[in-house]
Amino acid sequence: MENTFYSSFDTACREDERHGDYRTPFEQDRDRIIHTASFRRLQAKTQVFLSGEYDFYRTRLTHSLEVAQIGRAICTFLQRKSPFFSETFYVDSNLVEAICLSHDLGHPPFGHAGERTLHNVMKPFGGFEGNAQTLRLLTETVYSDKVSRKGMNPTRAFLDGVLKYKTLFSELENPKNHFIYNEQKAYLDFVFDGIDLLGQIEAGKTRDYFRSIECQIMDWSDDVAYSLNDVADGIHSGFITQHKIERWAESQQLEDDQNASLQTLFAAMRDGNVERSLSTKIGSYIESCSVVETTNIMTAFTNRYKFDLVVDERAKKESKMFKKLSLDLVFLSPQLHQLEKKGDYLLKRIFDTFAENYIGREKFELNLLPKYVEQNIANANNDQHRARLLCDYIAGMTDGFAIRTYKRLFDPEFGSMVDLI
């Protein structure tokens, strides 16, 4: 049966129209993501701990798969339980899955530390931001090869769902994160059909507060996945123990429900049942979702802006507590900061070395990059564009490839023919 929730406005593409086949446009969006090299590389990019440290820790890939499962489950739950939806009118789970699978595509090696490093070196050239880089991949580079660079021609609804942040780099006084690149305004205009959102939203708020229902589902799914699963990885790694949690809790102003949640976690830790206990939490977080109707400038164009996701306050507070627990005991630990410092040092030296050879020069002194990458840089019409192409290459690296690249450039003991592969 046809899903009347979506119209041709939602399935439209900015470039050529899709060729029809047995799949819906949103199934095509999802399938195209899964079969890209950028998606596969997530298996070797840091989520919390450096990829490859231990086999069972989550990577960006396993995290993205978990977010996608949660997103699909929320769609199923809402279709079956919400009075607004039915068998012929519902949020498409294939679309939400595509958005969830894509949400971390643009993140560089070494996690958020790598993102901060690339932003710092790219500030003179328009900055770097993981979500903006995801948008760039989908629209311009995800199918790059030795001949050409091109995106996947996403549908409007898919592109909108990925646009968690919609503020331009140039619109922020001191941009640190949560922006898109200035040159991406054309995609913003396409998604909203040329409507200027700033004149339509609540005073004092940015475009970032204006999100489709699919984007809201992805955002909550992401929160659910990393708030619980980062705790699980932290426990398995030994960063989080009952004693450390108890000491941490003494410095927090926790409510009775939150303290009860910690007692449940302690019981699971004693029984060796952490994963199962936290998986049960995921189910309760899914069931905490509902939708309400809303009205705004986009409701005349699409049903995707006629509904807002509502999450039960108890679930939100518990999720926020688990996120802070992971932040304080894992992400702010000396061990993680040492790894982040190493990642920052590696990426900065790699970027500076490549920039010295490729930016501000008429002729390249050395051939440091694959020929097709060098050719694209040579064809760029200004240094800002060259820097962006160089940043694309570095952001696409896995943790391991970035380390090997650093060794090839700077380690005198690393240089055999085997090392060069």
List keywords for this structure.
single chain, 421 residues, mainly alpha, Hypothetical protein af1432, 3 domains, two-stranded antiparallel sheet, 18 helices, 55% helix
List the helices and strands and how they pair.
Layout: H1 8-11, H2 25-34, H3 37-41, H4 60-81, H5 93-102, H6 111-122, H7 130-141, H8 156-162, H9 185-191, H10 213-237, H11 242-250, H12 256-271, H13 274-287, E1 289-293, E2 307-311, H14 313-331, H15 334-358, H16 371-379, H17 383-395, H18 399-410
Antiparallel strand pairs: 1-2
In short:
The chain is mainly alpha-helical and 421 residues long.
Could you explain the architecture of this structure?
The protein is an all-alpha fold and 421 residues long. The chain has three domains: 8-209, Hypothetical protein af1432, CATH 1.10.3210; 213-334, no CATH class; 335-410, no CATH class. Helices cover 55% and strands 2% of the residues. It is built from 18 helices and two strands. The chain has helices at residues 8-11, 25-34, 37-41, 60-81, 93-102, 111-122, 130-141, 156-162, 185-191, 213-237, 242-250, 256-271, 274-287, 313-331, 334-358, 371-379, 383-395, 399-410; strands at 289-293, 307-311. Residues 51-55 have low confidence and may be disordered.
CATH class of the largest domain: Mainly Alpha
Q: Describe the biggest sheet?
A: 2 strands, antiparallel
- Regions with little confidence, pLDDT below 50 for 5+ residues: 51-55
User: How far from one another are the termini?
Assistant: 51 Å
Overall pLDDT confidence? 91
SS-based class: mainly alpha
Strand content: under 5%
Query: What topology, given as strand order, has the largest sheet?
Result: 1-2
CATH superfamily of the largest domain: Hypothetical protein af1432
Count of separate structural domains: 3
- The number of helices is 18
CATH topology of the largest domain: Hypothetical protein af1432
Number of strands: 2
CATH architecture of the largest domain: Orthogonal Bundle
Helix content: 40-55%
How do the helices and strands follow one another from N- to C-terminus? HHHHHHHHHHHHHEEHHHHH
Radius of gyration: 22 Å
Overall, the morphology is globular
